[in-house]
């Protein structure tokens, strides 16, 4: 991943800064494809909000490394104000992403930015479904049909958990470690005659969290339990890192 010569971007007054919301992140291996649509912003703000020579950057934050900056393009170069680029990211599961628009005449001054974004791999692997009268906050259902047989789904009671709460860091921190543990345990300990693709995806996710591959099927159960706990601990560290970066973002801008 190329490192730009810029060392930091300086934020404008947060009250005057424009918030960017229409963007999409897609990871495939170590390749990140990011798409940004600034057209909706221009519909609701004066033309001068984005001077023609303003530059659109993606900022990539990785733990214990300086930030990386990639230029997506200039406002003047895009007729419809849509930008897209594919970038190599060494450690995508731990990456945090932000898109900023930089003023052309005021060095490195941010005039628009998104929130810090993360791949959210665990959430993308796990569909959610509202189940009225479930009688509990959440449960895992493994017998949900899909194109590859069955896959786990996180069910929740909408009377107890409003949909907007599903993205709340407190919900993710409280629920997802247990969810990850239960799914990985099922992958290792519950035999299945059908080799579902979701199991391989979740074991790959656990491998990234534990930073080591899962035990072989013939290994004793304690080694499997230890690996699952190591994966859950790695997942929790990623959640903590995400919250620290979000706090840093809120305090710094």
Q: Which properties best describe this structure?
A:
2 domains; six-stranded mixed beta sheet; three-stranded antiparallel beta sheet; 12 strands; alpha/beta
Q: Layout of helices and strands, plus pairs?
A:
Elements: E1 10-11, E2 18-19, E3 23-28, E4 31-37, H1 39-44, E5 55-61, E6 68-74, E7 82-88, E8 96-102, E9 109-113, H2 121-125, E10 128-130, E11 138-146, E12 149-156, H3 169-189, H4 197-210, H5 221-252
Parallel strand pairs: 1-9, 2-9, 10-12
Antiparallel strand pairs: 3-4, 4-7, 5-6, 5-8, 8-9, 11-12
Biggest sheet overview: 6 strands, mixed
- Cα gyration radius (Å): 21 Å
- Unreliable stretches: 1-8, 11-15, 248-253
Name the overall outline: globular
Provide the residue-averaged pLDDT: 76
The percent range for strand residues is 25-35%
Helix content: 25-40%
Output the number of helix runs.
5
Give the terminus-to-terminus CA distance. 26 Å
The SSE order reads EEEEHEEEEEHEEEHHH
Number of strands: 12
Number of domains: 2
Structural class of the helices, strands and pairings? alpha/beta
